[in-house]
């Protein structure tokens, strides 16, 4: 497997999210460099970035390891999303372009069509694209980056059950886009907050809190910790 050096960070992150590397497992530069067909330099840089993002921790005598988020840290991520996604929607109502609206409306049409057919796998992908585009429409690079990072971490820590009412869910997406198109920031914020709150209930932890070993780290999963 050989990938461009600048894509190493994305590749390692995707493999962590997919469970290729288990929580707590060691990440050695030599093995990673061999797996992705690059030198150790881009691997080292990628591990630093992933540590800052909270996917990796550096432990004394062990080196880089996949982080082991607690149940509370995982719950915090969902709460953060319910706060930031409505902010992004409000900003999108003020800053969106016609190109953003075209993409969002297209995704809503596809989502509603797939929801009527019961194509749940398609709906997950379309939902991700919808929220990514909505974040980009906010015109804030930092907010978009934070929301993208939250989505990666939530996908890593949670499985998402199929929504009870997929048609209703995509009707909510459509209402959000309508508010954004009208420039109604407060309605876009309120609708997105309600949508995010409902979506939270479909998330189930991938790991079992009952079997999780106690950790003493003082650093939340979404915050970079010091390197030893």
Automatic annotation (TrEMBL):
UniProt keyword Acetylation, yes or no: no
Keyword terms of this UniProt record: DNA-binding, Transcription, Transcription regulation
Coiled coil: none
InterPro entries assigned: GntR_C, TF_FadR/GntR_C, Tscrpt_reg_HTH_GntR, WH-like_DNA-bd_sf, WH_DNA-bd_sf
Gene3D superfamilies: GntR ligand-binding domain-like (1.20.120.530), Winged helix-like DNA-binding domain superfamily/Winged helix DNA-binding domain (1.10.10.10)
Domain of life: Bacteria
HTH gntR-type domain location: 2-69
GO molecular function, one term: DNA binding
Protein name: GntR family transcriptional regulator
Organism: Streptomyces corchorusii (Streptomyces chibaensis)
């Amino acid at each position: 497997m050989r990938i461009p050096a600048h894509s190493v960070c994305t590749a390692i992150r995707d493999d962590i999210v997919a469970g290729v590397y288990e929580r707590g497992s060691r990440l050695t530069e030599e093995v990673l460099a061999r797996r992705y067909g690059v030198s150790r330099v881009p691997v080292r840089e990628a591990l630093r970035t992933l540590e800052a993002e909270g996917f990796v921790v550096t432990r004394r005598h062990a080196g880089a390891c996949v982080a082991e988020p607690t149940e509370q840290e995982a719950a915090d991520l969902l709460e953060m999303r319910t706060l930031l996604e409505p902010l992004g929607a409000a900003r999108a109502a003020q800053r969106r372009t016609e190109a953003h609206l075209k993409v969002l409306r297209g995704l809503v049409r596809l989502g509603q069509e797939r929801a009527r057919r019961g194509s749940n796998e398609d709906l997950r992908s379309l939902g991700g694209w919808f929220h990514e585009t909505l974040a980009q429409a906010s015109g804030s690079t930092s907010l978009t980056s934070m929301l993208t990072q939250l989505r990666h971490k939530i996908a890593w820590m949670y499985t998402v059950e199929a929504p009870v009412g997929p048609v209703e869910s995509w009707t909510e997406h459509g209402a959000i886009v309508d508010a954004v198109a009208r420039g109604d920031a407060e309605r876009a914020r309120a609708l997105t907050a309600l949508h995010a709150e409902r979506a939270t209930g479909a998330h189930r932890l991938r790991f079992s809190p009952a079997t999780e070993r106690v950790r003493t780290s003082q650093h939340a999963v979404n915050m970079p910790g010091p390197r030893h």
